[in-house]
Amino acid sequence: MNSARFDNILRQVLIVPIFAVLLGAAGLYWQIHDANRTVGFIQAADDRITHTLFVERLILDQETGLRGYQTTNDDQFLDPYYTADKQLDLAFFKLSNFYAIGTPQRTLADHFITTHNAWEQGFAVPLIATMRAGGHTNDPDLNVQGKHEMDAVRLDAAALTRADQASRDAAISHWKTQVRHMETALGLSAVFVGLIIGLYTRVLIHDISEAFKRSNHILRKRAEEAFRAEQRLRTTLASIGDGVITCDPTGLIQTINPVAQELTGWAEAEAHNQPLEHVFRIINETTREPVENPVTKVGRLKTVVGLANHTLLIRKDGTEICIDDSGAPIRDKQGELIGIVLVFRDVTISRKSQAALLANEKLAVAGRLAATIAHEIHNPLDSVSNLLFLMDGESTPAESAAFLQLAKQEVSRVTQISRAMLSLYRESRAPVPIDLKELLESILLLMNGRLANLQVTVTPDLPANLIVQGFPAELRQVFTNLISNAAEAASPSGHVHLTAEPEPAYPTPDSLRTQDGVLITVEDDGPGIDAETRARLFQPFFTTKGEQGTGLGLWVSRGILTKHGATINLASSTDSDDHGTTVTVFLATNPTIQVGGD
């Protein structure tokens, strides 16, 4: 085959299919244009329905304001009435212009406007004038007349909406028919082009057919994958253990999963398109002040955010639950914000469990001290008994006076011990000034017998006038636990060094020491703690003491210190020449304390 023949075949192969394609494209363009025009009809019907609903809302504002004014005789209740009245003229004008003159919808719209004017001029305006003139508007016939007129307004609005909805449904039905015709035309065009191309080359039609099949397979596969992905998402949202709410960028709720419905008390149908703050009402547990709307916060920060501690969710029925949550932005491919997702859970039981653990640890601390305190009180009482026996015998007045002085000292020691024990439980409702020297010395007094039994020497270095703000009983619990741990680690015949010193502010980006405070150090010369154990020390229920430990001491202590805006650090060495553990606690002088915090 010469090149001219080959070129001629190529031209025929190319020109005929191109012509067929252009012909099909012209028909397709006409169908698409016709379909777009139908879509325009549908959008116009949507606009009319939306505007009718807007007019209904304005009329409702008028009626609400009028009823409020009729009930209270307070002019400020007429603000919604007059605000709506100012907008209604333009709204009615726009509503009339939606419909051509002579159409049934135009007749309905005109009747709607006339009915409203009859209510306004025949009931609303005379009622306002009568009340301002000092008259009474409690006449049942007058109010029933106003109700009948407003019912007529609502019926007209409903009739107009139904007419627009019927028009919209007809347009949608027509659009579906057009789509079916378009699909049919596309199929016929494909067959027509395929037959023409098949007349010239079977190879080409085979390639086109295979390409068409592959394309259809890919599209079908992608459609199936998209459907499965949507079903997975719906199933995940329905079965996930947390509440999930998604909103548009303005904060209107789009979806709410079953858990969120249960937690908020709002059904999905009720919550849809409601502002988030109406459904998800949250307050601070301590101050009872409203918490910033998560949607507002995410929109402002443009990142994932979490709620502050101690947040309460007020359910639809008015009951309250403790929650923990986070919000995150939803972005499109261009990175634009298209929505916000809110994930939250009920932590009421968790909070109660933590409170029980805290109470359990406090009881454990008291239990560890009980035997020691009994021993510490028994010894001075024994001494008092012996001194009274000696005074009752043949002692001289000078000896009796000396015995009495010794007895007073022993009784004073019992009083000291009992006061220190009571202070472990007596708690103030608000932070108070704490003298750390006095607090730490009272702890050592309570632990004196236990330290003696463990054969451990504690060397305190506690200067006076180290004052911080806080809750004394909670800090006693922390330092009792730290000193007890150090003594047990150093036992027997070990040594614990307890120091406190002023610490200046150290305001760096990575430091929490933004104000002056006190640095307390508890250092022992025990065997030390290996790295693997150190990594787990602050986890709840982890203990190195077997049955004798609860595994809650350091976990609770860190929670209390976090509440006080404090920090705790632990360093340890297991070297044979230099072994031991050092715990340092920094307490700010005047911290921001989370009252009621864990």
TrEMBL record:
Write the Enzyme Commission number(s) for this entry.
2.7.13.3
| GO terms, biological process | regulation of DNA-templated transcription
Q: Which PROSITE patterns does the record associate with it?
A: HIS_KIN (PS50109), PAC (PS50113), PAS (PS50112)
The record's section on NCBIfam families has: sensory_box
Could you list this entry's UniProt keywords, alphabetically sorted.
ATP-binding, Kinase, Membrane, Nucleotide-binding, Phosphoprotein, Transferase, Transmembrane, Transmembrane helix, Two-component regulatory system
Q: This protein is called what?
A: histidine kinase
**Where's the Histidine kinase domain?**
372-591
Q: Which residues form the PAC domain?
A: 307-359
**What is the top EC class of this enzyme, as a single word?**
transferase
Q: Which CDD domains match?
A: HisKA, PAS
Which GO molecular-function terms appear in the entry?
ATP binding; phosphorelay sensor kinase activity
The domain of life for this entry's organism is Bacteria
Task: List, for all copies, the residue spans of the domain called PAS.
Answer: 229-293
Kindly state which reaction or reactions the protein catalyses: ATP + protein L-histidine = ADP + protein N-phospho-L-histidine
Q: Which Gene3D superfamilies match?
A: 1.10.287.130, Histidine kinase-like ATPase, C-terminal domain, PAS domain
InterPro entries in alphabetical order: CHASE3, HATPase_C_sf, HATPase_dom, His_kinase_dom, HisK_dim/P_dom, HisK_dim/P_sf, PAC, PAS
Q: Which residues cross the membrane?
A: 12-30
